Amino acid sequence: MPYLCYPIIIGKDMFNSDDQPGGTLMLKIKKGAGSFYAGDSQENPLAEITFVPGGEQVIIIDRTYVSDELRGQGIGRLLLGELIAWARKENKKIIPLCPYAKAEMEKDREYHDMLAADLPNSRNPAPTCPKFSKKGWF
């Protein structure tokens, strides 16, 4: 699958040297095995949204991550949009266990048709996404 490019604004602090100015960078979103991600590799992404199969016609979004240098620019929303576009094409519904994905999908009417019928609720609560600290996921 080809990747999609989006312009993002970056600051000087994203680079390791002082001679690189801040400016606009084209962010490439790629589909990996069980994820959509931005960065040089799926193993070390700058941002990603991950999913697992939940049946033949259902996927479960279990995590969204955006690095500090990309945070606050709508990258999570772009990743979610790409995942939803792919799921539509594949005729799959979505169970968003990740709190970010769940909130965004519930907020945007364009995504409501993609929600699987058996969504977790107060009687059947969903597990939460793992939390991230500077030491890693836990």
Short description:
This protein is of the alpha+beta class. The protein has helices spanning 75-89, 99-107; strands spanning 4-10, 23-32, 35-38, 47-53, 58-66, 93-96, 132-133, 136-137. A 6-stranded mixed beta sheet has the order 1-2-3-4-5-6. Strands 7-8 form a two-stranded antiparallel ribbon.
Question: What does the model show?
Answer:
This protein is an alpha+beta fold and 138 residues long. The protein has a domain of 93 residues: Aminopeptidase. Helix content is 17%, strand content 33%. It contains two helices and eight strands, in the order βββββαβαββ. Strands 1-2-3-4-5-6 form a six-stranded mixed β-sheet. It has a two-stranded antiparallel sheet with strand order 7-8. The radius of gyration is 16 Å and the shape is globular. The C terminus is likely disordered.
Biggest pleated-sheet summary: 6 strands, mixed
Low-confidence stretches: 9-20, 121-138
> Structural class of the secondary structure composition?
alpha+beta
- How far is it from the N-terminal to the C-terminal residue, by CA? 31 Å
Q: Identify the CATH class of the domain at 32-124.
A: Alpha Beta
Gross geometry: globular
Please identify which CATH superfamily of the domain at 32-124 we are dealing with: Gcn5-related N-acetyltransferase (GNAT)
Question: Judging by the overall fold, what is the CATH architecture of the domain at 32-124?
Answer: 3-Layer(aba) Sandwich
Mean pLDDT: 78
Helix/strand order, N-terminal first: EEEEEHEHEE
Record the strand order, biggest sheet.
1-2-3-4-5-6
| Secondary structure tally: strands | 8
Amount of helix: 10-25%
Quaternary status of these chains?
A: single chain
- Here the CATH topology of the domain at 32-124 equals Aminopeptidase
How big is the Rg?
16 Å
Sheet-strand content, in percent, reads 25-35%
Give the helix tally. Answer: 2
